Here is the input.
Amino acid sequence: MSEKLLLLPILIPALSALLIPAINFPDKKARNIFIECSVLLNSIVIALLVIYPPANTLTLFRFSERASFSLRLDGLGMVFAVLIALLWPLTTLYAFEYMSHEHREPSFFGWFVLTYGVVAGIALSSNLLTLYLFYELMTFMTLPLVMHSQKRESIRATISYLLYSLTGAAMALGGFFFFQVYGVSMEFTPGGVLDMARITAEHSEGMLRTVTFLTLVGFGAKAGLVPLHAWLPTAHPVAPTPASAVLSGLITKAGVIAMFRVVYYVVGDDFLRGTWVQTALICMALLTIFTGSMMAYIEPHLKKRIAWSSVSQVSYVVFAMMLLTPDGIRGAVLQIAAHAMAKSCLFLSAGVVIYFTFQGANYHYADQLRGVGKELPITMTCFALASVSLIGLPVTGGFTAKWYMAAGALGLGNFGLFGIVILMVSALLTAGYLLPIVTDAFFPGDDYDYSSVVPFKLLPLKMIIPLLLLSAGTILTGIFGGSIIEFVNTRIIPVLL
Here is the structure.
């Protein structure tokens, strides 16, 4: 397949987003069909690129001898690209119903589709400069999604999101300039691109490790890594639920993918193994895992609770990645896939609960969801399946991912055992803040007024289909986890370690 086709996953959403306000659609249904077909077409193109990956790199233009805007699809990019191609059409389909009672629908869908192409660009980036440009562009494409309601709280959340994102991006940009000076190339290369002879001669190891640490923390802002995490539980609750789903399920993964690229494709794992950078990042990841879980446990607001859960669960990937072992890489990739499915499902389920408010109850809060499983049984069943995956119970993708993380952590001795303890504590806290919602929804107790239950009403298929497929995905990533591991073993690990 020609490498020029790598441009299509970026151009199709961009062109579609421009046409949404330009075309005079006869009605909303016609507009929605156009949007969904555009998104599906883009996903099909991505699938074809994954099945028949171009052998060469597409270089569009060069800024200098070593700095270029280039696209390529490798094993890690394929993982992220497949997730994007699966989740975006489902979330878009869901959004048609959810956003039907919102104002400024064309604006929302325009930015939503445009963001698809930008996030795909991160998966297709061939070097750090290209990734950084798409990373920055992603921030500005998602700002209108967070600020969609234009209420005071959404504007405040948008400002917070922007400040944290720009702070992290500035830290990452500083790293780019150092890596350009001390690297033999800027193309993502397994094992890293650093010129170790020059670094050793100039005694620059300590400086570059500090730069690497700051770069990783900067990219970690999108992943919700402490201390640049506060935007996430602020932005998610005010954004429309479809936007929250992609922010948590995919946008946070873009930060993790950027960190993964720096560790394994820019500086190389050997440059970090056994150093204070590895130790510091693992400690920060464990602190974030515990902090996110604890805050979710005490948070009563439903979407905020799920957002704090994302802070915790995404840092599982950072922890596994920084183990710098084959099992760590396996656990990280599995967690990326499992969490994307589960967290998107949780947010979309919460959106249904908020969308269909019965009996005047305040469905924005977790402690007021008693009996909602009687009114929305399919929704809460999907919510339950996603919850058990996040907890890490057997058969789910979350269980398989955490199993490999624990296996990788054992190689670090006592420090690794401490990490496993934190993972177990986090799993217990996750059960503590998710399972009570499920049990109260289906088993509200003898004192519950069953006469107040609204007769079951079938939800629109545009909402039901995404929920069913995403909840099934949380189980299938566990059942077919072996296939994912086989892909990691053949397409990622051999070129990295």
In short: The two ends are 28 Å apart (CA to CA). The chain has 21 helices and two strands.
